[in-house]
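User: Design a sequence. Structure:
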């Protein structure tokens, strides 16, 4: 260190030199075979990784679109499979009107047919529909996590 530079400037220059030695900003090109090999490897592997990430990103976009569309269609089928609540409401209204018009002595049906009774096949169809909706949403969630990673 010469007398013309102060210690703070010398320390700062020393830190800059140390950082530049370990930096990858300026690619070192050596004359020997190994350094040429690793420089070529770095270039080829970088291109491969970029291509792989681009393909995976595109695949996750496709998965998100498919999962979204499938979930919408599946939700429509689930809604269509639900029992009609108007049947129960209409039966109760008829019973209420009969009690109002004829008094408490009106003949009342003992049991109102519940519209929520399911056969075994209806139960399994709805269970599979809900399961497929859950798995579709799980796939969409995984694709979103993959895109954010």
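Assistant: Done.
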């Amino acid at each position: 260190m010469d007398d013309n530079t102060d210690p703070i400037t010398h320390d700062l220059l020393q830190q800059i030199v140390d950082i530049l030695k370990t930096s990858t900003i300026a690619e070192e090109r050596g004359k020997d075979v190994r350094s040429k090999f690793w420089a070529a490897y770095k270039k080829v592997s970088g291109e491969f990784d970029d291509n792989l990430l681009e393909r995976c990103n595109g695949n996750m976009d496709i998965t998100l679109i498919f999962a979204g569309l499938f979930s919408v269609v599946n939700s429509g089928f689930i809604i269509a499979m639900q029992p009609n609540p108007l049947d129960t409401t209409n039966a109760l209204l008829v019973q209420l009107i009969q009690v109002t018009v004829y008094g408490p002595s009106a003949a009342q049906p003992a049991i109102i047919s519940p519209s929520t009774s399911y056969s075994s096949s209806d139960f399994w169809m709805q269970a599979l529909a809900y399961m497929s909706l859950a798995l579709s949403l799980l796939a969409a969630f995984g694709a979103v996590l993959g895109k954010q990673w």
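The two ends are 48 Å apart (CA to CA). The chain has four helices and no strands.
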